[in-house]
Amino acid sequence: MTNQSEARRQEYVLLQRAQKLDQTALATIHDQYYPAIYRYFTYRVNDLQTAEDLTSEVFTRFLHALHGQNAPQTTLRGWLYGTASFVLKEHYRQKKKSKHMTLYDDIPSSQPPLDNMVNQSFDQDTLNTAVQNLTADQQEVIALRFGYEMPIQEVANLMGKSLGSIKMLQARALNRLAKLLNAEASS
Amino acid sequence: MSKNWDDILITALDALDTGQSIDQILTQCPAQYRDELLAVLQTAVALQQRPLKPARQPQAKQNFLAAAQKLQQAPPPRIPKLNRPSFSWGPPQFWGPLLRLAGSALLLLLLTTIFWQQLAQPFLNQATPVPEATRPRPTTPAPTQSILDPAPLLTPTLTTTPPPTSPTSTPSATPSPTSSPTPLLTPSPTPTSLITPSPTPTADHNDDDSGSDDDHSGSGSGDDSGSDDDHSGSDDDHSGSDDDHSGSGSGDDSGSDDDNSGSGSDDGSDDDSK
């Protein structure tokens, strides 16, 4: 309990400094939340590039919110999750509209080595295929719990459900994922 | 079985959250569920320890901080003033309320006009025929008359309205003042044809009967009350009046014939006998 209130106080102080566009505070926020938001996106989109693009978009919006009138006032974690969820919905909407994408060959790559990416991509594909078989609520719970690394009580608060139902959703989602991944591995 | 398995799963995942190892959790689980539970717990641990690092995070962080620096140097976003006066022709404290008042008045006028034309007028036009349906129909209805044009029907009720004290007066007289006056006051030839049916003249003569009955005390018709005075003078006048009232009822005249057996000269004697 004390740890939680201390964490909230630190987050509040960090937010106050960030509202003044303090570079150190902004760097801390980026280090702290960028990987979590990225992991959240990796559970909800098919490829890692898109996940990273969407994560950068969340932080761009965070900056504009700080500069404008919509800056988060109390909780940074919740605000970032809300923005991530909104950006994800926008992404799906755009994806529905435009089915074709232009590929450019002449852009120099700044990516890590290809073999790492292939391995990651293979895992990502397998996992994504399995995750796609879950219900929307189950997907969201898995993304928040294992991607965003959010405590289960906070997940319940954000999704507007009881703690028991979130636990049930998580248990059934993991049970289903285990079966699907085992079936994939055996085949 | 299913509920039991759900409970076991939830308990096991709670234990995993609190930091217990998989082996510890499995020892507390019934033997028949251990294999399945092991698979689920391994999946959960694999997801927790997923080696997934954003490849472009350093670059993204640099871009983020650079953008923040640019924003810091940029002027704060302008907030548009909402209550800036739009006129400079005079003191705003004078023009502002005046224009607002004029605008409100215009709007009110417009709304009233629209209301009257669209709502009230059709309502009144539809409302007028309602009492017309309740009143007694004339014996000779106009065949080409439409329901939506009540003016010719209502016109005679205004022009030939009997005094309201009459007990047998038609109820059509009451709704006519509420109707719009313009179509009712226009004279038309048709009203006269509508008056001619028998109920209307009898109403007039019955009014006279109330007085004439006192005079004649037994005579059925009030027609004679007025004509009797004339009879006393000359029979020629009486013959003319009989032509007028020939349709009004032979029964009435039969009663009066008794009284008038002595022709016009009996007027005085009848009054005396009574």
* Total of DSSP H or I helical runs spanning 4+ residues of chain B: 14
Order of helices and strands of chain A: HHHHHHHH
| Category from helices, strands and their pairing of chain A | mainly alpha
Distance between the termini of chain B: 116 Å
Q: Percent range for helical residues of chain B?
A: 55-70%
Largest sheet geometry of chain B? none
Low-confidence stretches of chain A: 113-119
Q: Average pLDDT across residues of chain B? A: 62
Oligomer: heterodimer
Radius of gyration of chain A: 18 Å
- Summarize the largest interface: chains and residue counts: A-B, 44 and 36 residues
Tell me what portion of residues of chain A adopts beta-strand conformation: under 5%
Large-scale geometry of chain B: elongated
Query: In what range is the share of β-strand residues of chain B?
Result: under 5%
Instruction: Report the structural category of chain B.
Output: mainly alpha
Largest sheet of chain A: none
